[in-house]
Each structure stands twice: as C-alpha cells, then as structure tokens.
Amino acid sequence: MNETQAETQTEIALDVPWNVVVHNDPVNLMSYVTMVFRRVFGFSKEKAEQHMMEVHQKGRSVVWSGGRERAELYVQQLHGYLLLATMERAI
C-alpha cells in the first residue's frame, strides 16, 4: 500500500459513522442515567428514559451516531459521569 492509499483509507475511516454505546452497569441508578442522557445529549425526559430502559433490559443502547470526533467527545463526557460507554463503527 502506498502513502496515497493509506491517506485515502484514513479519510474513509474518519467519514464512517460511529455509534456511541452505553453499557449496563450495576452501580448507577436508573434516574441518574436518565439525567446524564438529558444533560449530555439534550434528550427529552421520554427519550432519555427510553434509552435508559434499553440499557437496563438489553445491556446496551446506541445513544448517538455520527462523526468520530464528536463520538469520542460524547464517550469522554459519559465517562466523566462514570457511565460505561464505548464507540463502534456503524454498519
């Protein structure tokens, strides 16, 4: 692979949408998780509760999808609230 191909692949990787995933944990209260979703993402109470219940019942919820840099920022913010969050490429 030459340098131009590597740069192109890097640009493509950055353009691929990324999901921010919040995972279930045994520590945080459901009301706390709902509050964090409202504060970080600006969700309505209903939408925040819906994602919180998905985390609680299914073990994870995709709470946001988009560019890599913003996804990294959201994961960092969620970690600041002590929530277990990761990023994954959207398919």
Describe this structure in words.
- The protein is an alpha+beta fold.
- It has one domain (16-89): Ribosomal protein L7/L12, C-terminal domain/Adaptor protein ClpS (Ribosomal Protein L30, Chain: A), CATH 3.30.1390.
- 57% of the residues lie in helices and 20% in strands.
- It contains four helices and three strands.
- The chain has a three-stranded antiparallel beta sheet.
- The model has no long low-confidence stretch (mean pLDDT 91).
Highlighted features:
91 residues; alpha+beta; Ribosomal Protein L30, Chain: A; three-stranded antiparallel beta sheet; 4 helices
Give the topology, please.
Layout: H1 3-15, E1 18-23, H2 30-41, H3 45-58, E2 60-66, H4 68-80, E3 85-89
Antiparallel strand pairs: 1-2, 1-3
| CATH architectural category | 2-Layer Sandwich
How many beta strands in the DSSP annotation? 3
- Give the count of structural domains: 1
Uncertain spans, ≥5 residues at pLDDT below 50? none
Name the CATH superfamily classification: Ribosomal protein L7/L12, C-terminal domain/Adaptor protein ClpS
CATH topology: Ribosomal Protein L30, Chain: A
Question: Hey, roughly how much beta strand do the residues contain?
Answer: 15-25%
Element string (H = helix, E = strand):
HEHHEHE
Judging from the principal axes of the Cα atoms, what is the shape? elongated
Helical run tally = 4
User: Largest sheet at a glance?
Assistant: 3 strands, antiparallel
Radius of gyration: 15 Å
What spatial order of strands do you see in the largest sheet?
2-1-3
What structural category arises from helix and sheet content? Answer: alpha+beta
What's the level 1 CATH class?
A: Alpha Beta
Helix content: 55-70%
